[in-house]
Design goal:
The structure holds two protein chains of two kinds. Chain A has helices spanning 3-8, 19-22, 35-43, 63-71, 75-85, 89-95, 117-131, 153-164, 181-184, 193-205, 222-227, 259-268, 294-305, 326-334, 402-405, 437-440, 445-465; strands spanning 145-149, 168-172, 209-211, 233-236, 256-258, 287-290, 311-315, 338-341, 343-350, 356-369, 375-379, 385-388, 391-394, 432-434. By secondary structure, chain A is an alpha/beta fold. Chain A has three domains: 3-131, Orthogonal Bundle (Fumarate Reductase Iron-sulfur Protein, Chain B, domain 2), CATH 1.10.1060; 145-241 and 400-465, FAD/NAD(P)-binding domain (3-Layer(bba) Sandwich), CATH 3.50.50; 243-398, FAD/NAD(P)-binding domain (3-Layer(bba) Sandwich). In chain A, helix 8 links the parallel strand 1 and strand 2. The relative contact order of chain A is 0.12. Chain B is α/β, with parallel strands linked by helices. Chain B folds into three domains: 2-89, Elongation Factor Tu (Ef-tu), domain 3, CATH 2.40.30.10; 100-211, Rossmann fold (3-Layer(aba) Sandwich), CATH 3.40.50.80; 261-291. Chain B contains nine helices and 17 strands. Chain B has helices at 22-27, 68-75, 109-122, 142-146, 167-176, 191-201, 237-240, 251-258, 262-290; strands spanning 2-11, 14-20, 33-37, 45-48, 51-53, 58-64, 81-82, 84-89, 100-106, 126-133, 151-156, 163-164, 182-188, 208-211, 227-230, 233-236, 243-245. In chain B, the strands form four sheets. Chain B has a seven-stranded mixed β-sheet, sandwiched between helices. Chain B has a five-stranded antiparallel β-sheet with strand order 5-6-2-1-7. In chain B, strands 4-3-8 form a three-stranded antiparallel β-sheet. In chain B, helix 5 packs parallel to helix 6 (191-201). The longest helix of chain B is centred in the C-terminal third of the chain and has 29 residues, at 262-290. Chain B is globular. The chains are: A alpha/beta, B alpha/beta. At the A-B interface, helix 12 of A face helix 1, strand 8, helix 8 and helix 9 of B. Bound molecules: flavin-adenine dinucleotide (FAD) (2 copies) and FE2/S2 (inorganic) cluster.
Chain lengths: 468, 291
């Protein structure tokens, strides 16, 4: 096919579940491509020699090659290429901010729409999940043992890469189910947990051992893993963890949740299936969520699905400053979520029985730019008003969990409690590496995976040559 | 899966369960708890480790049936298994030589103070225990505690055993007794009891530690559901506690937050009972069909 012909093909839109319908269920919003559309979309790729999209991907997926295989309808080959660099393609194809990564630098984005790399990635991953249960030929064992702390995207990626190189890898996970934020935070309607389970199973078939219910810092400490349990190296990827509250009156009222608690109850514990599971969650008729990121979007859309009407999002800056992906904001609005921008909660009001009754907010206006370059919100005196609600969800971010770092003498952290690493990913303790949110603060799935990959290479060198 | 080695009823609706959990047993210290799920789709609930045997790789739990999950747990027999046990969690009890230490346990709370008794004794304390129950049959761990205590004072609401009245009454007498030099009070039990004990010791300025029991989910500091207010500050009981200075705890808030899911808990309980009834009906039908 000639480039001019490729240029004529319009970008194929992702089919979505009807907005009214989906605001009442937890099924996926995005429905995925049919095979013929995937082929067509793949034909839009110009197969650049010096493809900008590859370095645009933190795990360096050979995008033109897998896309080309899709256009040739050779899905098995596409899957091989994709899985060689990305152990969680079904996840990243659904939740990556492609618009600021591979798709942003796509040449086709200069004049029109980029190739739908994310959508194609998801398509190939879903096909592979259905059609491929490869038995991996185990590589020759090196005799080296590595422990990975945390089974989020950083830990899983690092574990997969190390297993490929013949090291014996054990992942320790505090919760009863592997996946980290992918299973406890990101809701079913964006990322079904079975997609995560299937990709985790593939890793297990590759030889990665996953042990749940083990909290490093409590069940074992890092020094114990090295000195008593016989691990030669460790990768710490325990995520960002600890939720931040607003420090305003009323945060102990019944009906006030951190986003982590609210989402964990619903996603990990399955509380939306009230008749089948034992974990409860409050089903609100009115909900208010504060925050402007993906987490806030997920929380407010979840509350909507549990029956909140209105489900209101309060954010102190304007839409342009919202860190959430555009797609999420658009989807939320379609589902009937109300955005109250340039507002901030200043007090949570309770009734006589200690339940949340309303949130008192104050209007803001944008002043001079702050350190982040975004215009600083300034309160408008006398503009207070109340929004009635039964639940109030705080989604303004998380900070480093000190559980592990406190019990690891000699492990250097910065003033926010994030672990400090060098270029190779190694911490202040020789042989102990770290990556993902515990290093970066709240970031993204793919950056966490990139960290896992970098660390796996360094750990391999460290194990084989004694030096990262 | 974590196999149950033994299980028996200690008192009405109170069961002692010994389960295999070698990793937890090897690291258990007094004050630690675990979080378990009885089955898939089950809730995560926190329970104190009442005892452990690192060599055998087992831990002991003492569970009171108060709702659906504790009921399901107490239906399990030796040989059956618990789906998940994660731990140990929480900060261990700060054990010091207080001179004389008094442990106060109410109901299943008595199981919480049991490992503390041993540790306090080893640290050189003269240990006393004041343990309460509605009546004689509800008093647990009396004999076990004898091993580490100078004296154990059972208290019953109806006077059927030991001191006639609440633990606070007995404790008040001890605090008044000038021949005693009580250096610390450590307690675990129902919230109203802990609240009352804190008020009893406050005028005497005796350091008083309460083991709090808010609703928890993960137990790792990730959700903040277990938050309690201590000295005006927000604390996460699972990682900052569960033991706190009782004189600074906002017990009213704790009581209040524990009632968050009252409606859902009743629903879960009724559903469980209905399920049981169904099973009985089916068994009966099967019996009739075969006879
Ligand atoms: C609600 C929500 C929505 C998001 N949406 C997106 C999105 O759409 N796109 C995107 O790219 N990013 C998104 N993010 C961010 C992204 O999920 C994180 O940046 C990413 O998951 C970080 O990966 P990680 O491997 O570092 O840690 P995590 O995913 O946090 O995993 C850490 C794991 O370690 C475990 N752990 C913690 N402490 C211990 C311990 N002491 N011992 C053993 N195990 C431990 C935890 O239980 C957890 O399973 C979202 C985040 C949230 C909360
Ligand atoms: C650190 C800690 C240690 C604990 N140790 C023990 C122990 O050793 N033995 C024991 O029997 N119980 C202990 N508990 C309490 C136990 O976790 C609850 O009884 C259990 O979660 C109730 O679950 P359920 O589904 O059976 O009852 P539900 O139906 O959920 O609740 C029934 C009743 O119990 C109350 N309740 C619910 N959750 C809790 C809770 N987390 N704590 C206290 N009351 C609650 C409710 O307010 C309600 O009145 C401990 C709690 C904590 C936080
Ligand atoms: S139980 Fe979730 S933070 Fe304590």
């Amino acid at each position: 096919m000639k480039p001019s012909e490729r240029m004529k093909i319009p970008r194929h839109e992702m089919p979505e579940q009807d907005a009214t319908e989906r605001s009442g269920n937890f099924q996926e919003v995005n429905q995925g491509f049919e095979e013929q559309f995937a082929c067509r979309e793949a034909e839009r790729c110009l197969q650049c020699k010096d493809a900008k999209c590859i370095p645009g991907c933190p795990v360096g997926v050979d995008i033109p090659a897998f896309v080309s295989a899709v256009s040739e309808n050779d899905l098995s080959k596409a899957a091989d290429i994709l899985l060689a660099d990305n152990v969680l393609p079904g996840v990243t194809g659904r939740v990556c901010p492609q618009e600021t990564q591979c798709e942003e630098v796509c040449v086709r984005a200069k004049k029109g729409e980029p190739v739908g790399v994310g959508h194609l990635e998801r398509f190939v991953a879903d096909w592979a999940r259905e059609h491929r249960k490869d038995l991996f030929e185990p590589p020759p064992a090196t005799g080296k043992k590595v422990a990975v702390v945390g089974s989020g995207p950083a830990g899983l990626t690092c574990a997969g890469e190390l297993a490929k190189r013949g090291h014996a890898v054990t992942v320790f996970e505090a919760l009863h189910r592997p996946g980290g934020v992918l299973v406890y935070g990101i809701p079913e309607f964006r990322l079904p947990n079975i997609v995560v389970d299937a990709e985790v199973e593939t890793l297990q078939r590759r030889g990665v051992e996953i042990v749940c219910d083990v909290i490093i810092g409590q069940t074992y400490t890092i020094p114990e893993l090295l000195e008593e349990e016989g691990f030669d190296s460790i990768f710490i990827a325990n995520g960002a963890g600890l939720p931040i509250f607003m420090n305003i009156p009323g945060e102990s009222l019944k009906g006030v949740y951190s986003a982590n608690e609210f989402l964990t109850r619903v996603n990990l514990m399955g509380a939306y299936r009230a008749t089948e599971v034992d974990t409860p969650v409050i089903r609100p008729t009115r909900a208010v969520v504060v925050g402007g990121g993906n987490t806030a979007m997920d929380a407010v859309r979840t509350s909507r699905r549990l029956g909140a009407d209105p489900a209101t999002l309060v954010y102190r800056r304007s839409r342009a400053e919202m860190p959430a992906r555009n797609e999420e904001i658009k989807h939320a609005e379609e589902e009937g979520v109300e955005l109250k921008l340039l507002n901030t909660p200043i007090e949570i009001l309770g009734d006589d029985d200690g339940w949340v009754r309303a949130v008192r907010c104050q209007r803001m206006e944008l002043g001079e730019p702050d350190d982040s370059g975004r215009r600083r919100p300034v309160p408008i005196e006398g503009s207070e008003f109340e929004i009635p609600c039964e639940i109030f969800v705080v989604a303004i971010g998380t900070k480093a969990n000190p559980l592990l770092t406190q019990t690891t003498p000699g492990l250097e952290v910065n003033k926010w409690g994030n672990i400090i690493i060098d270029d190779t990913g190694m911490t202040s303790i020789p042989g102990v590496f770290a990556g993902g949110d515990i290093v970066r603060g709240g970031a993204t799935v793919i950056l966490a995976m990139g960290d896992g990959k970098v660390a796996s290479r360094s750990i391999h060198k460290y194990l084989m040559n004694g030096q990262a | 899966m974590f196999k149950i080695v033994s299980a028996e009823w200690l008192a009405p609706k109170v069961r002692r369960i010994v389960a295999e959990a070698p990793r937890v047993a090897a690291h258990h210290q007094p004050g630690h708890f675990i979080i378990l799920r009885v089955r898939d789709e089950g809730e995560r609930i926190p329970l104190t480790i009442a005892d452990s045997d690192a060599e055998k790789g087992t831990i002991t739990l003492v569970v009171q049936v108060v709702g659906a999950t504790t009921e399901l747990l107490c239906e399990l027999e030796p040989g059956q298994a618990i789906q998940n046990i994660a731990g140990p969690m929480g900060k261990p009890t700060e054990i010091e030589d207080f001179g004389e230490a008094v442990l106060v346990g109410g109901g299943v709370g008595t199981a919480v103070i049991y490992p503390q008794a041993e540790a306090l004794k080893k640290a050189g304390n003269k240990v006393f225990a004041v343990i309460g129950g509605r009546s004689k049959e509800y008093v647990i761990f009396e004999e076990e505690l004898q091993a580490y205590c100078e004296e154990v004072f059972p208290c019953t609401d109806d006077g059927s055993h030991g001191y006639n009245g609440f633990v606070t009454g007995k404790l008040g007498e001890m605090l008044e007794d000038k021949s005693r030099k009580i250096g610390a009070v450590l307690m675990a039990g129902p919230v109203p009891m802990m609240r009352a004990v804190a008020e009893v010791t406050r005028p005497y300025n005796v350091p008083t530690i309460a083991s709090l029991n808010p609703i928890m989910v993960d137990g790792t500091g990730m959700c903040g559901g277990c938050r309690v207010t201590v000295g005006g500050e927000m604390k996460f009981a699972c990682v900052d506690g569960p033991e706190f200075d009782a004189h600074k705890v906002d017990f009213k808030e704790l009581t209040d937050r524990l009632a968050t899911y009252k409606e859902q808990e009743i629903f879960a309980w009724e559903r469980l009972q209905k399920g049981h009834q169904c099973k009985l009906d089916q068994q009966e039908a099967a019996c009739r069909a075969s006879s």
